[in-house]
Amino acid sequence: MSIAVDYVVMCLLPHSLVLMTFCFHHAATTCSKHCYCSESDGGGKTVRCSNQQLTAIPQDIPNDTRRVYLDFNLLTSIPANAFAGLSHLAELDLSHNDISQLQPGAFRGLSSSLQFLDLSANKLVHFTADSFEGLRARANLTNNPWHCDCNLQMAMPRVDLEPVSLTGIVCQTSDPEEMSVQGLAFLLEPDVDLCVVMKRTTDVAMLVVMFGWFTMVISYLVYYVRANQEDARRHLEYLKSLPSRQAKSEESSTISTVV
Ligand SMILES: *[C@@H]1O[C@H](CO)[C@@H](O)[C@H](O)[C@H]1NC(C)=O
Ligand SMILES: *[C@@H]1O[C@H](CO)[C@@H](O)[C@H](O)[C@H]1NC(C)=O
Question: Residues of the signal sequence (predicted)?
Answer without folding.
Answer: 1-27
